[in-house]
Amino acid sequence: MARWEPNARLRLVQAAIDLFGEQGYDSTTVAQIAERAGLTKTTFFRHFPDKREVLFTGQQEHGRLLTEGIEGAPASATPLEAVAAGLDALTASFTPEQRAFAPRLSAVIAGHPELRERLAFKELNLAATATDALHRRGIPDPTATLAADLAVRAFATAFTHWITPTNDQPFPTLARHSLEELRRAAAALT
User: Fold this and answer.
1) Which residues of 104-139 are buried (b: 16+ CB within 10 A; e: fewer)?
2) Number of Cα atoms under 13 Å in the Cβ half of residue 130
3) Which residue, of 83, 98, 107, 117, has the greatest Cβ tally within 10 A?
4) Cβ atoms of residues 39 and 8 within 8 Å
5) What span, in angstroms and rounded, lies between the C-alpha atoms of 112 and 25?
6) Among 58, 84, 105, 73, which residue's Cα sits nearest to residue 172?
7) What is the pLDDT of residues 117-143, one digit of tens each?
């Protein structure tokens, strides 16, 4: 691939996932990722601070989309309706390309403790972002925190279902269904 071709970021992600799957996360270097993508090591570092972050690209964008969806929900929306709107905005942004390589990405993360820790941190950040957006809507704690936590749990559950090869449902539908299941489970606690 020529160095000037577009989508350097996506090419780096795909190269990293391929290499992590072939030779393991620990054995893969930034130089190898860049070379596989047809780019330079300098280009890699323009996009990512380290090889771990290749697997978690888009975190800021995810938080922005979730926030915009929550803030854009009707004023009459309940906290769960607001986070559902946030989930709609976030999950609609995922592409078929992301779905294609997501199972390999998930396998790499599952096989490495440092990456599982990073995933947990990402989920905590998403929940904090959603909580902040709910606070701006005037929703107090603990309601805002609980609604945000349910949204992130619904997102994670839906993502796992979405990347299953036999799945034929869109990501937003799966996220809404997961959130509804969690709402029913929470109601059953009383």
Assistant:
1) ebeebbeebeebeebbeebeeebbebbbebbeeeeb
2) 35
3) 83
4) yes
5) 8
6) 84
7) 999 999 999 999 999 999 999 999 999
Q: What pTM, to 2 d.p., does this model score?
A: 0.89
The packing angle between helices 96-110 and 8-23, to 10°, is 40
Higher pLDDT residue, 2 or 139? 139
Determine the Cα–Cα distance for residues 86 and 73; give it in Å rounded to an integer.
8
Token duo for residue 17: 């996932």
- 13-42 per-position pLDDT tens digit: 999 999 998 999 999 999 999 999 999 999
What is the token pair recorded at 170?
């869109």
The CA distance from 28 to 115, in Å, is 14
User: Six-digit token pair at 85?
Assistant: 């709107």
Read off the tokens for 50: 């380290």
For 55, the token pair is 């697997």
Rounded to an integer, the average pLDDT of 93-112 is 90
